Amino acid sequence: MHRRQLLIAGGSLMALSACATTTTGPSGASGASGASSLAADAAIARAVLPVQTPRAELLQEWTGPYEGVPPWDKVTADKLKAAILEGIELRRAEYLAIANNPDAPTFANVQVAMQMAGEPLGRAMSLFGVMTGNIGSADYQAVQREVSPLLSAAGDEVTFNEKLFARVKAVADGARAAGLTAEQTRIAERSRDSFVRSGAALDAGKKAELGRINTALANAFTSFGQKVVEDEKTWTHIPNESGVAGLPESNKAAAAAAARARNLSGWAIVNTRSSVDPFLTFADDRGTRETVWRAFVNRGDNGDGNDTNTVIAEIVKLRDQRAKLLGYRNHAELRMQDTMAKTPAAAMELMERVWAPAKARVAEEVADMKALAGHDIEPWDYLYYAEKVKKQKYDLDQNELKPYFELNNVKRGAFYMAERLYGFTFTPVARGSVPVFHPDVEVFEVNEKTTGRKVGLFYSDDFARTGKRSGAWATSYRGYSTYDGPKNVLSSNNNNFIKAEAGQPLLISLDDAETLFHEFGHALHSLSSQVTYPALAGTPRDYVEYPSQVHEHWVLSRPILDGFMKHVETGQPMPQALVDKIERASTFNQGYATVSYLSSAIVDMDLHTQATPPTDIDAFERQSLARIGMPKEIVMRHRLPQFNHLFTSDAYSAGYYSYLWSEVMDADTWAYFEASGDVFNPDIARRYKAIILAEGNTTDRGEAYRRFRGRDPDVAALLKVRGFPTA
After folding, report:
1. How far apart are CA 55 and CA 523, in angstroms?
2. DSSP designation for 52
3. Among the four residues 95, 156, 264, 554, which has the most C-beta atoms within 10 Å?
4. Is the dihedral of CA 50, 53, 55, 58 positive or negative?
C-alpha cells in the first residue's frame, strides 16, 4: 500500500524468505545443517506419497527454461476446471497416505510430506488465480463459481482428518524431545496450531457445521468479487469538451480512447481509481465531478443485481458463527492469532493514536480549501481544491511532475534500486521465448550481479482491461525453498494503468510511481527468499506490507531521479528545486490521505468485533463512521460495498490496519537509511536483505526487526513522515 495515499488494492501476496541448513537429530528427525539430510528427508517424504500420474494437461510439471514456466499458452477455462477437479483428487490421495502411514510420525514423514502434497493442484491454482484476477472473462468466472466451494470442502477434508491431525500434533508435541531444530520446531508447532484454529480439534458435529460455514463463505467471496468487477466495467460518458476541461492532455487522451473502445463519441471515465482520481483532481466541471465520484463510491451499492450488501451481511454472519464455534469471541480475535499485533485492542491502539491528529489536519486542510473555493467542500471537491491549494502554498502542480514519470522509465528506476540495494539485475526476455497470459505482459530475467546466479523471472502486467480486478497487487507463481531442491522464483506485479494513445508516452503521477515501487517491493521480497521450507515462506499479514512500503521512499532519491526520471520532452532530470518543492509539500494533504485510509481500517475492525453481526451494512457503515467523527468532506478509501480486501477472501479481514502497522517499521527503516548519510548504504541494505527479506517466517518477525534495527520500531517516525505531532 502506498505510503502517502495507500493505493494498493490488495491481492495474493507470497512474501517469501530465509533459511537454515539441516542436521539429523535423534529418532531420525532432521535438523538444520546439511544438504544430505534435506535429501534424506525428501526421500522419506516422497516414499510416503502414492505414485500418481496426472492426466490433465495443466497439472503436469512446468517445462521450458528457468526450471519450468507456467504454460499460459495452453490455458483455457475448460482445461483449468479439469485440472483443478483432478488435482483435488490427487491431493486427497496424498494426504490420506500421510494420515494412514503405519510408521511412527516424524518430521520427515509428516511435515515434509505435507510440504510435497498437492504440488500438481498448486500449479493449477497459480494459473487459476491469474486467469480469474487478470483476465476475468465470463468463462473463467463460471469456473470460479463452480470450483470455489469444492476447493473449500477439499481443504476442510484435510483439516478434519483425525488421523492426520493426530500425527501433526504428535510431531509438534514431541519436537523438542526429538531433537528438531528451532526452524523445524517452529514449522511443526505452527502447523499444529493452524490445524486447531481451522477446527481440527472439534467434534464431528461441529466439524460438519464448520464445513458448511466454510463452503458458504467460499461461495459468498466469489459472488462479492464478481459483483464488484461487474460494477467496475461501467463508465461515465462525457459528450462535451466542457466536461473534461482542466484535465491534462494525457488524461484527456486516455478518456477519449476509452470512449472509442466503447463506440462512444467524446470521453469516458472508467469506473476504476486510476481513471477516477485524476478526473476528480483536475476536472473543472463540478457537476461532472460529482457524477463521476458518485458512480465510483457507490460500486456495489446501487440496489441492482451487482449490489453486495446482502452478500456482506451473509459473510459477516458466517464469520461470526465460525469464530464462536472455534471458541473466539469474534472474527477479529480469531484472525489476529497469527499476527504481530496479536489482539484487536493492540491494532486499535495504534489506529487511535494516529486518528486524532489526522482529523485535526483535515480541519486545517478544509479551511484552506474553503477560503479558496468560496463554498463548502464536498467529497468530490477535495482532490480538486487540494491541488489548487498545493499550487498556491508550494507552487507545485502535478502537471509539472508527470512529464518526469514515464512508465517504462519508472520501471527501469525500480530495477536500478534493486541492483544498488540487493545486487539484482533485470534483463528483458525476448517476446515469445516464454509464454504469457496476455500480450501486454513483459517478462524480465533476474540474476545476481556478483555471482551470475539465475534468481528467476519477473512478470509485469501493467495495463487495465475489462474483467481485470482493480488496483495494484503482487503475486508469486513459484516461491523459493531448498527442502527438495531450489527452483527459480517466478514473481509478478500487476497494475491498472490506462494505456496511452499509440506512439505516445504513458505518463503517470508521483503517487502512481510510488505505488509501482511498492508492488515491486513485494516482488523483491519474493526474489530475495532463502527459505528451506515453503511452510515458513509467508510472513504475518501485518508484516508483509512492510518490505513493500519502505521501497516507495527511493522514488525521489537523487540517483534514481538523475538516471531515470527524466523529462519526457527535454530529457533532463528533475531539477533539485522541484524536488525541494515536493519535499516541502510531502506532508501536504496528509489529513485526507490518512483519514480516507484509516476510516476504512477502523470500520473493518469495528465490523468484525461486534457481538452481534449487523444485517444492514449501509446503516452500520454510517453509524461506525459517526462514532469516530468521520469528517463529512471525505469518504472511506474503500467503502464496505466494494471492499475487496475484506470480502473476496479472509486474507485482510480484520486486518486492513496492517498497512499502518507495517508503516511504523517502514518509516523507522527509512529514517535509519537517511541517518546513515547514504540512502543506498550497502551495509544496511545487506542486513535488510538477509534479515528482513530473506528469512520469511523462520523466526519471530518482531525479533527479526530488533536484530536488524537494534531496537523496536519507533512510531514517532511514522508520525513525522505524515507531518503529525510526535509528542
Report:
1. 32
2. -
3. 554
4. positive
Over range 282-308, report the average pLDDT: 97
Asked if 316 and 383 sit in the same domain, the reply is: yes
CA dihedral sign of residues 123, 129, 134, 135: positive
Give the per-residue pLDDT at 512: 93
Q: Give the whole-angstrom CA distance, residue 421 versus residue 585.
A: 27
Tell me the per-residue pLDDT of 490-508, one tens digit each, with 9 for 90 and over. 999 999 998 888 888 999 9
User: What grid cell was written down for 102?
Assistant: 503405519
Same domain, 279 and 334: no
DSSP track, 604-666: HHHHTT-SS--S-HHHHHHHHHHHHT--TT---SS-GGG-HHHHSSSTTTT-TTHHHHHHHHH
Report the sign of the C-alpha dihedral through residues 431, 433, 434, 435, in that order. positive
Q: Are 489 and 526 in contact (CB under 8 A)?
A: yes
Beta-bridge partner residues of 667: none
Give SS3 for 311: helix
Residue 582 maps to a domain: no
> Alpha-carbon distance 146 to 142, whole Å?
6
Just list the catalytic residues: 519
Distance, CA of 268 to CA of 279 (rounded, Å)? 11
Give the integer Cα–Cα distance in Å for 415 and 426. 6
Residue 706 lies in a domain: no
Q: With H, G, I as helix, E, B as strand and everything else as coil, classify residue 222.
A: helix
Asked whether residue 107 is domain-assigned, the answer is no
Please identify which residue in the block is written with the cell numbers 458458504: 216
Distance CA 711, CA 665 (A): 11
Nearest residue to 671 (alpha-carbon basis) of 658, 684, 660, 659 = 684
Looking at the fold, whether 255 and 329 belong to one and the same domain comes out as: no
Range of the domain at 332: 309-396+588-656
Tens digit of each residue's pLDDT (9 = 90 or more) over 251-263: 999 999 999 999 9
Q: Is residue 291 located within the same domain as residue 318?
A: no
**pTM summary value:** 0.90
For a pLDDT cut of 90, what percent of the chain falls above it? 91
pLDDT band at 36 (very low <50, low <70, confident <90, very high): low
Rounded to whole angstroms, the Cα distance separating 718 from 18 reads 27
The reply to whether 349 and 389 lie within a common domain is: yes
Domain final residue pick, 631, 656, 681: 656
The amino acid present at 472, given as its one-letter code, is: A
Q: According to the 3-state scheme, what is the secondary structure of 117-134?
A: CCHHHHHHHHHHHHHHHH
Contact criterion met (CB below 8 Å) for 258 and 268: yes
Buried b (16+ CB within 10 A) or exposed e, 360-378: ebbeebbebbeeebeeebe
Q: How many CB atoms lie within 10 A of CB 313?
A: 17
User: Based on the domain organization, do 332 and 370 belong to the same domain?
Assistant: yes
User: What torsion do the CA atoms of 134, 135, 137, 141 make, to the nearest 10 degrees?
Assistant: -40
Main-chain dihedrals φ then ψ at residue 453, nearest 5 degrees: -60, 135
Domain containing 327 — which CATH number? 1.10.1370.10
Which pLDDT score is estimated for 34? 43
Cα 682 to chain center, whole Å?
A: 28
- DSSP per-residue string spanning 471-502: S-EEEEEE----TT----EEEEEEEEEPPPPT
Show the DSSP H helices in 198-298 as ranges: 204-231, 249-261, 273-282, 286-297
Task: Answer whether 463's CB lies under 8 Å from 495's CB.
Answer: yes
Q: Is 23 helix (H, G, I), strand (E, B) or coil?
A: strand
Between CA 501 and CA 513 the distance in angstroms is 20
Grouping H, G, I as helix, E, B as strand and the rest as coil, residue 434 is: coil
Strands 489-497 and 454-463: parallel
The total number of structural domains in the chain stands at 2
* Average pLDDT value for residue range 625-646: 97
Three-class secondary structure of residue 602 per DSSP:
helix
